[in-house]
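Section 4.2 – Deliverable D4.2 (structural model, holo form)

The reporting period included a commitment to supply a predicted holo structure for the target in complex with magnesium ion. Inputs used:
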Amino acid sequence: MTRKKRGYVCDVCGYDAPAWFGRCPSCETWDSAKSFSSLEIPEKAPEGLFLPLENIDTFDHERISTGFFELDRALGGGIVAGSSVLFSGEPGVGKSTCVLQIASSIASSGRDVLYITGEESARQIKLRANRLGLKNGHHIHVSPSSEIDYLRTADLSGYTLIVLDSLQTVRLAEIPSLPGSVTQVRECANLVISRSKKEEIPSLLIGHITKEGLIAGPKLIEHLADTVLSFEDTARGLRFIRALKNRFGPADEVAVFEMRSDGLSEVQDLSGITVQEFMPAPGNVITAVVEGSRAFLVEIQSLVSKPLYSSPRRVTSGVSIDRMLLVAGVLTKRAGIPLDTLDIYVNVAGGLSLDDTGIDLAVAVSLVSSFLDKPVPDKACVFGEIGLDGSIRKVSHMSRRTERAEISGFPNTISPEGRVLTRDISELLKIFGGVISERK
Ligand code: TYD
Ligand code: MG
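Output (structure tokens):
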């Protein structure tokens, strides 16, 4: 009646082959082959499998608030009923804290949350809840068992949310692999996601990513989850939660949080922090970057100085070194500023990491400002992309950036559309009203 495909899969990297292998040809792990059989193909397909598009009901997905305005926005309006959300990030970034705060927000309206923890003991969860000052504990039900076979049959009907913390620490007893292996991670995720869909209860799955890259990590189940949120750590306690994938909303939206002693707290106005800390000194420049649908202001700082050693040093933090070298190269060649013989240091204030070509012009203005030892004009916000020919080009969301700059008190935009119009890098010196010989 059925045909089965049999074979072997590497339990570490997921490589599969029809024949047994002693050492995985892909990741070179010894003795990682596990047999599998799948792909049952019945000879006759059951009827009624295919639905005409016409006959499919559409309804607005019910959404559950996370209790965080910004996170709800990044998700497209909250967590969709029956959907699965993967929270991925490095250990210690704040995933457990975040999901416990979400659980508590839901519990505060009298709805029950199931919190499955393979990672921490029930006591540790309770201690964290106390530290966060969370109440309504009787609506959060903790399951401190790392074996989650019971989920196949457990009655979940009373729950509004299922939390699994974490994918790498739970297992199914019937699968002879260690927690964290490809098979366990995939099967555990499958079980929770399928229960979640069937019962229309959303689930939050936590997955660790390691700095070295991951093996049986969240990557493996990114395609299974409806939404993938990535937690990124920046200096000074800021956390970015980015929607990498979202079946029910915009992708690439970002919510910004701050890690405090009482948990994660939303940062609604990142530009405000930047502006507050900005000092109009040579080399310091405000620029506007875009993340998701939002623009915000950040400060770029440069220091250009006589070289310490025979070959000049180039150091960046928060900006790619290649981007900085490109900007410096164009300034040297097209604007006659001899940066090629000088040490250059570029830094993004607040430890943020920027990957937006719109900052090119700000880096250039910052370098020139430091070179001339003159601060940038008052209340200036600088953005634009620089071409190798010295041209300055428009970037995405020009008006959004301009608007943000105006709202935050930096109306003197320097850009290819700005109040100070710049179309070519050779015009940059004019901004400072200076010529090279004025350099101190
Ligand atoms: P955690 O949520 O345990 O991270 P993850 O689950 O991603 O591994 O949080 C880790 C860090 O956050 C930990 O180093 C302590 C810190 N923290 C705070 O600063 N304030 C708090 O209120 C809490 C609960 C944790
Ligand atoms: Mg954790």
